[in-house]
Design brief:
With 220 residues, this protein is mainly alpha-helical. The chain has helices at 3-7, 25-31, 37-50, 56-59, 62-74, 79-102, 120-125, 141-150, 153-174, 179-215. Helix 3 (37-50) runs antiparallel to helix 5 (62-74). 27% of the residues are buried.
């Protein structure tokens, strides 16, 4: 149990409501020194895969993501971290499948090039079904598909992040002072950091657009 560590961590506001990080990267790193060596090592290995990286949606190939997840699952992980990695694998695989369907592709001969997890067989057998017949188990699939089809990158980012945030919150509630709570805090903190950076980038882009409009006004 990690009573001292959890008690030293600040409250994390929902990413969509926060204006700043409630704890700096340096401070968080210092707090995490209270982790047992095996937990610290697991979290370090997993951070490469589970940290929130919006650029993965566009710049990383599906094959490279699958390979990263496979290497991580081959290592020994405590159940809270293993479960979250599996959750992320499943979500990324379903997202990749929706993208393939959107782009008019069928189920590929080698699914390992783009997906992994417990539902690859289901995807293969129900490729032509709406949402692969999984919309009752994953009610968010139609929402993700809608945002993919409309090109709503910001809406998709917010939706996926909120799904992960809620999953981690539920996990932390089951073990208030255990490793699960540490995993949840670190992953949510990383999401918050990514969102604030993403939001700042959008603000800069919007400011540039406004300046560009002003400087190109033609006066009669």
């Amino acid at each position: 149990m990690y009573y001292d560590l959890i008690a030293s961590l600040p409250h994390l506001p929902h990413f969509d409501l926060a204006e700043r990080l409630p704890i700096t990267p340096l401070r968080l790193e210092q707090r995490l020194r209270l982790l047992r060596p095996e937990h610290a090592a697991q979290l370090s290995r997993a951070s490469v895969v589970v940290r929130w990286q919006p650029e993965r949606m566009t710049t990383y190939s599906d094959a490279s993501l699958v390979a990263e997840y496979a290497r991580l699952l081959d290592s020994r992980l405590d159940p809270p971290l293993h479960d979250y990695v599996t959750f992320r694998i499943t979500q990324q695989t379903l997202l990749a499948a929706l993208r393939r369907k959107r782009d008019g592709f069928g189920f590929p001969p080698d699914s390992r090039s783009w997906g992994v997890g417990p539902y690859v067989h289901q995807l293969r057998n129900h490729w032509d079904a709406p949402y692969f017949g999984l919309e009752y188990r994953y009610p968010w699939l139609p929402l993700v598909s809608e945002r993919l089809s409309s090109g709503d990158a910001i809406g998709l980012e917010r939706l996926l992040m909120d799904l992960n945030w809620k999953w981690l919150s539920r996990t932390a509630e089951l073990s208030m002072f255990g490793f699960a709570s540490v995993v949840a805090f670190v992953c949510k903190w990383n999401m918050l950091k990514a969102w604030l950076r993403y939001d700042a980038d959008r603000a800069k882009l919007r400011f540039t657009e406004l300046v560009d409009k002003v400087t190109h006004v033609e006066f009669a």
